[in-house]
Amino acid sequence: MSSITTPIFALAIASRHAAEENASMGVLVEGEKQNSSHSKAFCKGCLNQHKPALPNVIDVDAAGDSDAAGSGSLGDGWMAQAMTQITSVRGVRASMAAHLVSCPFASAAAKKAAQSAREDKKRNRNGSDSEDETTPPVKKHATFVAVDKVMKQSELTVFKGIDIPFNSTQKELVQKQFLRATISANLPFAWTVNPDIIKLFIMFRSRATDVMPSDAVLSGRLLDESASNVEKQLKKDLHGQYVTMGSDGWKDGYTVTGVTAAAQGKVHLVDLIHQRGKKKDGDAMCEAFCGHIDKLEATTDCTVVGYVCDNDGGSQNGRKKLVILRPWVLATACCSHQGQLILIDYLKENPEAQKTAEESSALVGWINNHERVRDIFDDVQTGGDPEKTPLAYLSGNLTRWTTHSIAFNRLIRLRAPLREAAVARDKLIIDAQVGAEKNKKKIAAMTKEAKQFIALLDDPRFWKRLQKLAEDIEPITFITNINQGDSTRADQVLLGFAGVFLHFKKHKIPSVAKGMMQRLEKRWAAMDQDFFVMALVLNPYEKLSRFGNDAGIDVFVLEGILLNLYKRVNSRPPVQPLTDAEQEDKERKEAAVSAAFLNYMSGTGPFASFEESRERFQNVHGDDPILVWRQFLNSTDVSDLADFAILLLGIVINQGGVERVFSDMKIKRTRLRNRLTFKKTEKMSKVGAVIRAENMAAGLTTAREPRKNHDDSRVAELIAVPKYADILENEDPADDNTAERVSSRLVNSRAAWRKLFTSWAVSARQEEMEAEEDEEESAMTVPHTASRKKWLPRSLSLLFGGKIQKEPETRRPRKAFNREELLMELLAAEHSDEEPDDGELEGSGDDYDGDSE
């Protein structure tokens, strides 16, 4: 600190290092530094303004020693108190002079000297900051020192942005955003220590490295804090809610079980569990299911009302044992898998369709595997115009069931250019196939293969069989799309089964119709019919309107089924035995539910107003039945029935959420990041799901429009029980991560198709054998009741039979593309006016490329 020698610097300097200068001015004060280089300084004029009006108290300037101002140190006496009430000045010459010039309490002499000092500084800007103005400035000369290049410390040479430091609050917010960006963009944790990334951020702000977290901080403290916040929010979201749990297995070096919880149309990841060394028999699986339920209910205070799992041996037996132990839990098999199983049933009942699927897959594989051959077909597609982009030749994927339908429809769409190329350019195709091959045997084999596919493309019978195959599997893929959403209800699944059943009931091949009807009836018989039927009946937009003339419905029988199902759901043992008053209240609620159901079926009482305004309400709010029942929760007479209806209609009966979690994990655990632990991956998945939901709610990301894999004009013909087109609009876009996709395994040869079909058939046969064993053992999954024996179980043929509209003789022609009309020189092709999507359907498990258990 420079010394002060003129009246202008009439300041008390709070520093031990300035003791001698202060002593020469008549004041001795000691104190702390403002920072490592400068001391605090206080204006004497400002200090005197806080002098107490007491005798024997003198001004600071008149104090001969420190005792005059107080007791002898900076922290004592009135001066120390005054220093806490005024603003200090940084103890450098320029700062003190600037204060004195504008200070109203400084003397005239002090202000004059301060002004003079400021003018001296202007005249000598290149001088030293020393208090001794007589010392001439020292000229600085550049000194060059030869330094060995190896000994130089590495540094980043980059254009620097603005130099503004970050405070602690800003640092915390920036680091949290770094974690969000890392999870959202699926970046490796070490990206923040990449030199080029650091250069990039320094170009925005030179102090960026002060707040950029390291990979250890990102994957450690920040990830743990965010995951903890997600867990707290999950507890709030599930508190007091009816929850459907689901679990599924996945193999990626380790066997892992994913556990999810679905509530209010959203699926949350709850846990990832290592299954190494654990049994998978029925007893072990039942114990695991009970453990999942108990843990979730204990931590979130929710009510688990449903459980969904696979229908394989261990899971199936475990689910049935769970229902016996806990009948209040409505446990069902995953209904999204039923689409694949029904597709297998169809291919087994229709060998001609299986052969056509094999030929189509081999044809597409042949085109895609020979680039020069593909170029010929592409050239015919575009008419030789290089500005046009040809449509791709799609292959079905082993683990994406709906892609087979998309691939077949794409092949039908390309029928005209493919046939034109096969006929008009057959020699060019053969030459392209053979290429520069010199071996005669290989040339003969290649020529034979090319001629076989050329003949197949020119065979009208093949295209007719392919058209029929696509028409038959389209309704199957349609209900598969519906059944895999995060908000799929039991009534929608039942209507999907009925629609496919009635579709094949009208099939032109009697053997296929009979075989498919029997297989669908068998699958329906294995389901909890009380639950599914009552879910459809409690849909206020449906009620009994979808049942056929042969259903033999009796409202009083339905009332008995409803009451027994209500008692079953509410049979959870109480913590304490019920008192007489509580038992009476329970019986009163059961009677109220029964009476409310009769009013609901007749549209009287509290339901009369809704029946009158149902159409208007539906036009405004859509056809969500849960929204309707929520309006009756405050009605005393029907509140219990409304709560029960919301419970049934809110159960999500698929594992789509679990499979989407596995898909997300597959993206995160790449080949370069395979050392990520599953617990860390679990945290990343949970945090990532919340980030996607928040960005979607804030409008920062655009929701992908529902895929249109089915022509709108064709939807009404797919199933005899319609009202499915709107269901696809509610699909969850949570996994809309198009930046990175899991590599697919395509079916592009006859051998691949046979292998795929064989694996499907083995799985289906195993399930049939297990079902037959269960029938022999008479395993009860749902308690039988008197009313159930009278009406349920009931076949699909009886429930939805009766007068059925006659199927049109010919399918409605598809509209052709204008650019393809010029290519239809050989045969008129039927084409769709909507291009099928190249990718998988969202929320279907399409992203999942692992081995399910």
TrEMBL record:
Stretches of the chain forming a coiled coil according to its record: none
Biased composition (Basic and acidic residues): 117-128
Biased composition annotated in UniProt, kind: Acidic residues: 769-778, 832-853
Signal peptide: none
Region (Disordered): 114-139, 768-787, 825-853
Family annotation (InterPro entries): RNaseH-like_sf
Top-rank taxon: Eukaryota
SUPFAM superfamilies linked: Ribonuclease H-like
Identification of the protein by name: Ribonuclease H-like domain-containing protein
Organismal lineage: Eukaryota, Fungi, Dikarya, Basidiomycota, Agaricomycotina
